[in-house]
Amino acid sequence: MAPAAPDADAYDIPWVEKYRPSRVADVVGNSDAVARLEVIARDGNMPNLILSGPPGTGKTTSILALAHELLGPSYRDAVLELNASDDRGLDVVRNKIKMFAQKKVTLQPGRHKIVILDEADSMTSGAQQALRRTMEIYSNTTRFALACNTSSKIIEPIQSRCAIVRFSRLSDQEILGRLMIVVAAEKVPYAPEGLEAIIFTADGDMRQALNNLQATFSVRSTTSLTCQEHGEKRARWKV
């Protein structure tokens, strides 16, 4: 009997989002970084943060989880999330970020609004200088979390105002553990060599591994794919 066709809903929600941890403690890998953020979540006093490391290692996931734990039901009103690779110039600092920092939001004592800047190392120098001034002016009400691949591309005046948390690539076993959870939840038929190929091509990047797993599943049960496009070893997997 042929496997059932995947539900259309399986394609609607990226699995990266569907299975994103909602608590810092559930973030996979980087135990030292996660432990530091757990302390912040427990104490409730978040400093400005720079989360630095390769793509797909949990930087954005960690800060989103931390923001949810700190702000609870106020998250929607008290968090501004931007991708700095799209909004990288002065205008985003002068308009979106400054307006958000000025916005009044009622929070628990000791809590702050949070600006999350993904790919912050792509911001122009001028935008970073403006951001540094905004961080100073609104330090009583707003905290900033900058996720980047390379912290050295963040200007020193911002670095000196932030706690830097470093992430590294995930191990194959760490990625496999998460993939097996998703495989079970989504009822994905698989061959071990297929998962090995996905993990191999992901190269420590959980986001890529989950995206590749979902893309493979979406081509239905009769298709074989190869990893030739990645320029690495070839492998086949059944989905």
Task: Report on the architecture of this protein.
The chain is α/β, with parallel strands linked by helices and 239 residues long. It folds into 2 domains: 137 residues, Rossmann fold; 61 residues, Helicase, Ruva Protein, domain 3. It is 45% helix and 11% strand. It contains 11 helices and 5 strands; from the N terminus they run H-H-H-E-H-H-E-H-E-H-E-H-E-H-H-H. Strands 2-3-4-1-5 form a 5-stranded parallel beta sheet, with helices on both faces. The longest helix is centred in the last third of the chain and has 15 residues. The chain is globular and about 55 Å long. The chain starts with 8 loop residues before the first helix and ends in a 21-residue tail after the last helix.
Considering the chains and any ligands shown, give keywords for the structure.
single chain; Rossmann fold; disordered N terminus; disordered C terminus; globular; alpha/beta; five-stranded parallel beta sheet
Instruction: Please identify which CATH superfamily of the largest domain we are dealing with.
Output: P-loop containing nucleotide triphosphate hydrolases
The percentage of residues in β strands lies in: 5-15%
Query: What is the chain-wise order of helices and strands?
Result: HHHEHHEHEHEHEHHH
Q: What is the total domain count? A: 2
Largest sheet, spatial ordering of strands: 2-3-4-1-5
* Class by SSE composition: alpha/beta
* Assigned CATH architecture of the largest domain: 3-Layer(aba) Sandwich
Q: Compute the number of strand runs.
A: 5
For this structure, the CATH topology of the largest domain is: Rossmann fold
